[in-house]
């Protein structure tokens, strides 16, 4: 089926369900707010673009999606792709690539491609996910350590020597705030897992900087004031030459959005004992990425961590995701100046924790017990993701993985164990 899940859930909607969705949506918004800002910054974009994406794409994914509890928005999986596209083609190039990716996802959903995830080897997804986590973590080291670096290269092998050369600019105050924030995130997650600890931890780190007058960069000092409204939608430059140049990037964005959203929906199904509609989910991702591009936002997909937070907070229907988008919009309209006081080391700590969780360290032992060929495929995809390019990593990984399956002379069936990230 390709019809949105919200049509099914609203038939028997009650005031009690709305109350549960209202609380869950507000809770998820407090998690999504700092994450959206941090992901945008790590992607090389203006932090406001993260909020725009969470609002527009988050709303459309919940309104049109095939999952009862899926929460959409910008995610860490896109960081290295977005950073590369912006570096090579500029931000307007990213907007066009996102728009094209949305169209690709609409076509995929129309032709019922949602089940094709079963053909992607699990080792490939695990490999590029860990690789992305490594890239995200290293990209946050300048802010985490308070290093003064004029330009950080996008390529991993070029980035490490630049960071090493900048070691003399280490800022103890920035490092201390980053460590405090990181510890608070971990402690609050363990002590009160349903509590929106991310915004509290980042907030406490930022308040410490203001009270102590520490020499630490804030969102406002680096990027200026955040806007207090959404921009008017507009189309990017649709020249044929530009579209041809950006088509490979659009394919990667569409692939990541499709895979990440369907993985997130599978995790949600396991948590609520439900069943999502994969083709409706792809159509929603397509609409969400087109919508985000029209408002100048980033690529978006279903966010596994935010979806899990929604379920744990009591979200029952897609209304919770709509509430989450509405709350972030209210924060933008009313409290944008306050968000400008959030400090860069605290946001860096948040993304490093996110990267650690993305890599799913609790599953590493399980990976080590797998087939030798699967371990080699995981390592190959990981290394290619980190040192070469995500496009190459996915292409090579899928081709090698499918060849390995065929060599085992078994029918090509899904071997997914839905991840918990």
Automatic annotation (TrEMBL):
Query: Membrane topology per the record?
Result: Multi-pass membrane protein
* UniProt-listed InterPro entries: SLC26A/SulP_dom, SLC26A/SulP_fam
Where it mainly occurs, coarsely classed, is: membrane
Every copy of the SLC26A/SulP transporter domain together lies at 18-374
State the Pfam families in the record: Sulfate_transp
Record's keyword terms, sorted: Membrane, Transmembrane, Transmembrane helix
**Superkingdom as given in the UniProt entry:** Bacteria
List where the protein spans the membrane: 12-41, 47-64, 71-87, 93-111, 123-141, 170-188, 195-216, 246-268, 326-356, 376-404
PANTHER family membership: SULFATE TRANSPORTER
What name does UniProt use for this protein?
SulP family inorganic anion transporter
